[in-house]
DNA sequence: CTCATTAAGTCAAGTGTCTTGACTTATTAC
DNA sequence: GTAATAAGTCAAGACACTTGACTTAATGAG
């Protein structure tokens, strides 16, 4: 009672933690490799055949995996491969952007089953909360109409919006969605849906999506450079999304570039916001995405000029990412129109020499990722799926075991 | 046999993994909080009193913890605190630098018991290997002379040298120790000492040291900006050193700065190498360290000019680190003379506005760390200690369990 | 065609580690 | 002096992985 400073310690673990981890490892292996037999799983995970059998049996009972037709592979008893059941789990993903909000429902393997969007009225959360909650409710009930028992298998709601979170805010920056960023979104969504809610910035969501179904599938170290209205980096480190102390890791858009004696955030030079300014168009125009795509396809000169300028900064960004994170690969993705992303990738090459240039590379240094207005919502939905099923240190610890 | 593509999967775990983790959690808690009673440990780790008792008993048998005098804390039976036994384990740390090699022996709590250094002859590993092995052998036998049974409690040898590792090499860069970097140092040291050997770059080693006994003690997210002959960042992410795909994460010295229309690596502008060039002194001079310290203390004009210039770049680096890693704190350390580091810290402030500027901060954004020629060797030694005793995801997995 | 070989998968007992709940010990508060 | 409180132990129990023998089902060699 006297000198009771709080004691800091990591949580211990027990049998349940072990079991939870092993279940996740199985699911992860099936996700990465496709269907595998129990014997394959035992070899790959270093567990015994018996243990694998028990866990697979349990996963099958839970409707997460199912057996496929036996395959003969030479001598010996044929093996029975088990694969993930797509309908084994669902999650809702929600993207809150400047002028629009999007929601999707995805299944265990990351297929989008339902998608819907709505315009966001000006005025921030006070006007937008209802729109957002209605959108989520709509997607949720459509999902329930498509698949039976979806509610029982709904692992959570993932939200994504531009970062950074919880920062004092520079006030004068018209590109910050400060009202939403300050708003207790997590609490509101939890109260409004009754679901387990998570929140990431949009670059992190894009990275989560790439890891589940895209170019980072099965990789342990990958960075997604996300070009959207702003620009950010989603970090997959040691096989998990890295969030930093306050969920703001990877906010590369705020990195400062020096030119002409003054410093400018990367975001002001290479992002859709900078493109819109360059083109003097209205960011709120709902047809803007298609319009820009058209311009890019047509080889518009103004677009070209912006691409060339942005490519210089992106080339530098990729070099910086390689230098600081030493990833297996860098993935360029965005909510930008696909034609624009393609032009950017073409303009970025060749990359600057870096420590990523080494003999024996198997992956390209830079890969294209998803460039789809829905990829952030997909990534948002991938968050809860990943939290529930991917192997993670935190999932082993006693203080995170649920039932 | 037919389509046997390798199956990728994470390793499963079992009872031993659980037990190993819980042991590590106890040791970690005692390291962070000092001596704790079993009841304290049970509450902090969420394990039961009984489990804690068993583990503590085992750790005591192994000579890693010992009981202290009972303390009365109000009503109830007095508690018996247990603390780490410094002599419970030892490790050797080895630093290989441009002109010198240093070795230290440290104990479980990071106290340096033996230190020794030797000049490195030119010619790289072919001439230097024997010097290095002799130095390690000398420190090892001196340790054996000071403490009994030290060999049995020696958990490994940690080596540190400037990175990057395994890179093609730009050939024309006189600041790269390419011969050593290409040399199979790990294998040579393993063969030459029979110990478990680890290798990190010097910034990573500095971070490891700061985490064990310095400003990053007990922190889960901290970045050490290391100013030495080169400049690098040691990354503590999620409570562990982050190495990246090839052990090259954090090589911020290679980040490119644009000025006057051309790009320059940070390392060429803010590092001891740049200072030596600025002062036109011989980097191989053994008295250089003391000399520079003197100059700094005396307020030398040439030093001052370099400090002012370097501070601009370091301020930018710190902003970049905060932006990309979102750490709890940034620690400035180095093998630079302490007076110089102090001048740098003074010149760096005030920091640039960043996402690290938030209400409710408890730690300063920038803290001074160790500035001691021996800190890299200490960090190198801290590597094996950390690998052996700190809670880590990898330590739970079956494929890393030894006996 | 037969049978040894190979490999997948099951069975049942065994083991290790954490958990549970009652109990003992030691101190303070009233 | 006694009740309350907290640390720590004891012994049985539960859980999840392991072990080794066994069953099943295919191939390949003679």
From TrEMBL, chains A, B:
Q: In which organism is this protein found?
A: Rhizobium ruizarguesonis
The entry sums up its family as follows:
Belongs to the ROK (NagC/XylR) family.
Q: Which GO terms describe its molecular function?
A: DNA-binding transcription factor activity
Q: What is any Pfam family matched here?
A: MarR_2
Residue ranges under compositional bias (Polar residues)? 11-20
Q: Which SUPFAM superfamilies match?
A: Actin-like ATPase domain (SSF53067), Winged helix' DNA-binding domain (SSF46785)
Region: Disordered, residue numbers: 1-22
Which residues span the membrane?
A: none
Domain HTH marR-type: start-end pairs: 28-75
Lineage of origin:
Bacteria, Pseudomonadati, Pseudomonadota, Alphaproteobacteria, Hyphomicrobiales
Q: Report the protein name in the record.
A: ROK family protein
Kindly give the Gene3D superfamilies that the UniProt entry links to this protein: 3.30.420.40, Winged helix-like DNA-binding domain superfamily/Winged helix DNA-binding domain
């Amino acid at each position: 009672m006297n000198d009771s400073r709080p004691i800091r310690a990591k949580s211990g673990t027990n049998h349940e933690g072990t079991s939870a981890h092993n279940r996740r490892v199985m699911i992860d292996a099936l996700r990465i490799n496709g269907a595998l037999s129990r014997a394959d799983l035992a070899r790959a995970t270093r567990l015994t055949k018996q243990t694998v059998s028990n866990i697979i049996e349990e996963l099958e009972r839970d409707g997460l995996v199912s057996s496929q037709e036996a395959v003969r592979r030479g001598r010996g008893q044929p093996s029975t491969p088990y694969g993930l059941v797509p309908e084994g789990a669902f999650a809702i993903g929600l993207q809150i952007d400047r002028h629009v909000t999007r929601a999707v429902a995805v299944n265990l393997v990351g297929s989008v089953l339902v998608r819907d969007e709505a315009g966001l009225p000006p005025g921030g959360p006070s006007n937008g909360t209802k729109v957002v909650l209605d959108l989520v409710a709509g997607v949720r009930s459509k999902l329930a109409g498509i698949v039976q028992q979806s509610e029982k298998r709904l692992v959570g709601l993932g939200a994504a919006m531009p970062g950074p979170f919880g920062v004092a805010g520079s006030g004068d920056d018209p590109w910050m969605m400060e009202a939403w960023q300050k708003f207790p979104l997590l609490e509101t969504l939890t109260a409004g849906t009754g679901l387990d809610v998570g929140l990431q910035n949009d670059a992190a969501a894009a990275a989560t999506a790439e890891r589940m179904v895209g170019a980072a599938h099965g990789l342990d170290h990958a960075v997604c450079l996300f070009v959207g209205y702003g620009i950010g980096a989603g970090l997959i480190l040691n096989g998990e999304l890295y969030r930093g102390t306050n969920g703001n890791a990877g906010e590369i858009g705020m990195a400062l570039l020096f030119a002409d004696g003054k410093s400018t955030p990367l975001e002001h030079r290479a992002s859709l916001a900078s493109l819109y300014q360059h083109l003097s168009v209205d960011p709120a125009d709902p047809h803007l995405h298609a319009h820009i795509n058209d311009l890019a396809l047509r080889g518009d000169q103004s677009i070209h000029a912006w691409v060339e300028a942005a490519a210089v900064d992106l080339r530098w960004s990729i070099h910086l990412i390689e230098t600081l994170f030493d990833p297996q690969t860098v993935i360029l993705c965005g909510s930008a129109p696909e034609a624009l992303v393609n032009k950017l990738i073409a303009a970025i090459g060749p990359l600057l020499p870096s420590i990523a240039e080494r003999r024996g590379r198997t992956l390209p240094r830079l890969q294209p990722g998803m460039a789809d207005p829905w990829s952030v919502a997909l990534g948002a939905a991938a968050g809860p799926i990943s939290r529930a099923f991917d192997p993670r240190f935190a999932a082993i610890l006693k203080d995170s075991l649920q039932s």
